[in-house]
Amino acid sequence: GVHPPRDYNAATDFIDRHGREGHGGRTAIIDADGPVSYDELTELVNRAGNALLALGLRQESRVAMIMHDSRRFPAVFWGAIKAGIIPIPINTLLRTSDYRHILTDCRARVLVVSEPLLDEVRPALAEQPFLDTVIVDGQPGRDEQSLADLLAAAGSDLEPAPTTADDVAFWLYSSGSTGTPKGVLHLHRHLPATAECYGRGVLGIEPEDVIFSAAKLFFAYGLGNGMTFPFAIGATAVYLPGRPAPDAVMAVLREHQPTIFGGVPTLYAAILADDANNRDSASPVLRRCISAGEALPKEVGERWQARFGAEVLDGVGSTEMLHIFLSNRPGRVCYGTSGEPVPGYSVRLVDESDHEVGQEEIGELLVNGPSACTGYWNRRDKSLDTFQGHWTRTGDKYYRDAEGCYHYCGRTDDMFKVSGQWVSPFEVESALIAHDQVLEAAVVPHDEGDNLLKPRAFVVLKNGCTASDDLAAELQGFVKARIATVKYPRWIDFLDELPKTATGKIQRFKLRA
Ligand code: 3SK
């Protein structure tokens, strides 16, 4: 539950418990090599924990992971946790310079890396002051070790390390849309907290469910969808090793028929853009979908539900809070909003002086809940700014409507004033996306040299649509007809794609530049 006992190792709860309770034969994972039962997963986890101990890692030392989604990801992650070692899953889409920074910053002694990522990662390994062992999931190079060999040589029984619920269990690096990645420290108790509050309380995941998260396991959102929630109750997770391109995702939906699917808004929109994709060509048993990463445009949610017959629960979470803390609820989805606080979490909306704002007034969202990280690694000032007592500042602007639903208005630093009125880029983008030729849009402030800011839009059109001045003028008129005239984009640029973080957030700062 949300309050585990003081002596608590999350791996015994999420991994070992299934065999202990007699359902170790259930399928835990289906990956590219086939199904893995909970008993098999437990053995893999034990072998991975023993392999790390055999390399000299001890309780509280750290292991970095740059791994694709497969059974070996949870093996290393939970094996480390069971042994009291702290795993640090890292985004597999980063560049060499990011890996150089993160590996030095986190001081892991061991790195486990998937072979296809070595070209990007290897140059970052030279002169790493703390790293002494590189393990490759695949074919190792000289001075590297093979994960398969280490697992085969390791023992299959492992005593859990004597951790407490308040011990650090793992770190994640916040991707952020700006700045250098920061290490985010999470405790053993945070895993059952998200499983209980969101997994059970909102998603209603059941042991019979098959869940497929297009969001990868290194991302807090994918970590919850693809490990914490299914493993909390003995359900099945489907892993896709490569990039979650629309075709690859559709192929998984067809082949594995998941009942629950998790994606990001761009992916939902891209799948919908192809008329051939519909419930018959996907999973007819799909009963619930989750969207996070950024706000889901109203039209995308509505069209998905009409086409695939399953509601999309749009929610908002963060790496700092580990998973979703504001969400729509099954049976009462209000598309275009982030819904209400997840049970167990509370939120406040405050102005620049930290005073609570009224209903329908825009304020910064603060959240308080049982999975808030303990802080950023070695970033005291940033931690003091973000974590204030029980409250975590999200940097997101929201307002709450009369029904208690929260409406996203943009990042605190993305909002701007036009003719004295606050403009939320998100509101203008939502208006543009409602046009049937627009796939995606990003809006930023632009100053044409008169020191006055006005909205400028970058638009990606759907396949088969052609950019033109006439279409730009049509889009301007379309927006004016829907939202306050002052907010319409004075300039429209057509792009092939928008700059985004690996986790799907639009990098507006790149468009502002
Ligand atoms: O971006 C989000 O909405 C999110 C959701 C769950 C976990 C982590 C993140 C960043």
Please explain how this structure is put together:
There is one protein chain. The protein is of the alpha/beta class. Helix content is 30%, strand content 25%. The chain has 15 helices and 26 strands. A 9-stranded mixed sheet has the order 2-1-11-10-12-13-14-15-16, sandwiched between helices. A 5-stranded parallel sheet has the order 4-3-5-6-7. Strands 17, 18, 19, 20 and 21 form a 5-stranded antiparallel sheet that branches. Helix 3 (72-82) links the parallel strand 3 and strand 4 (86-89). Helix 2 (38-54) crosses helix 6 (147-153) and helix 10 (265-272) packs across helix 11 (298-308). It is globular, with a radius of gyration of 23 Å. The N and C termini lie far apart (47 Å). The model has no long low-confidence stretch (mean pLDDT 95). The structure holds 2-methylbenzoic acid. Residues 220-221, 292-293, 316-319, 323-324 line the site of 2-methylbenzoic acid (3SK).
Gist of the model:
The chain is of the alpha/beta class and about 525 residues long.
Strand content: 25-35%
Shape: globular
Task: Give the termini separation.
Answer: 47 Å
User: Which blocks of ≥5 consecutive residues have pLDDT under 50?
Assistant: none
| Number of strand elements | 26
The ligands bound in this entry are: 2-methylbenzoic acid
Residue-averaged pLDDT, rounded?
95
Strand-pairing-aware structural class: alpha/beta
The quaternary organization reads as: single chain
State the major sheet: 9 strands, mixed
Rg value: 23 Å
Q: Helical percent range?
A: 25-40%
Count, helices: 15
Order of strands in the sheet with most strands: 2-1-11-10-12-13-14-15-16
